[in-house]
Amino acid sequence: MILAKIVGTVIATRKDERLVGSKLLIAQPIDPYGNAHGHHLVAIDTVDAGFGETVLIVSGSSARMAADLKNRPVDAAVVGIVDAIDVVEPSRAIKDS
Amino acid sequence: MQLARVIGNVVATQKDSNLSGLKLLILEPLTPERQPAGRCLVAVDSVGAGVGEEVFFVRGREASLPFLPAKVPTDANVVGITDHWSVDRSARGIIFAPET
Q: Are A88 and B8 in contact (CB under 8 A)?
């Protein structure tokens, strides 16, 4: 799973019928320190996440394990809203730089 | 599977119901030489790992298999805590090197 910040929503009238009724969010992946890291992605929302919130996104076929996503054409799903990120041991990549 | 170090925790109250009760760990993937190997990620824990420990984790759909029949939506799962590992230095970078 990756950490991401919700930065927008997607509206699509014409889409696969199995996606009708699902909320599509634009998420910016972040590292544990809150810095943007990597490309934006579109994810299906299963936990009522909103703009500006930090979330957990599960990707790949595991995304379909999230609630009500069975047999839907989905490869990224928001499965949790993050309350706190607690980095106890600093990342070695940051320690070295 | 990949080696990693546990560097922190994530707390999430509102989450998929099949994730409740599971510990969420922040992992930093490692090379066998203990250098960072790629971006940090969040994984569920099925072996009781904690911060500071070196572990190995599985990615992809297989990450949710240890919890069956529960359908846990996760793509990364800590499946072992390493006691130690060793790499034969003479093997490193030589096996695939072109012959000169």
A: yes
What is the mean pLDDT of the segment spanning A57-76? Answer: 87
Least CB–CB distance from A89: residue in B7, B14, B73: B7
Q: How many domains does chain B have?
A: 1
**Residue B80 CA: distances (Å) to CA of A28, A45, B14, B43, B49:** 30, 31, 27, 12, 8
- The residue-averaged pLDDT of A8-37 equals 90
For chain A, domain boundaries: 2-96
Q: Does the beta-carbon distance from B60 to A62 stay under 8 Å?
A: yes
Q: ipTM value of the model?
A: 0.78
Q: Taking residues B72-76, what's their average pLDDT?
A: 92
**Residue B33: its chain A contacts at CB < 8 A?**
none
The CATH H-level (homologous superfamily) assignment of domain A2-96 is EutN/Ccml (2.40.50.220)
How far from A46 is each of A56, A59, A86, B34, B50, CA to CA, in Å?
11, 13, 24, 36, 28
| Amino acid (one-letter) located at B4 | A
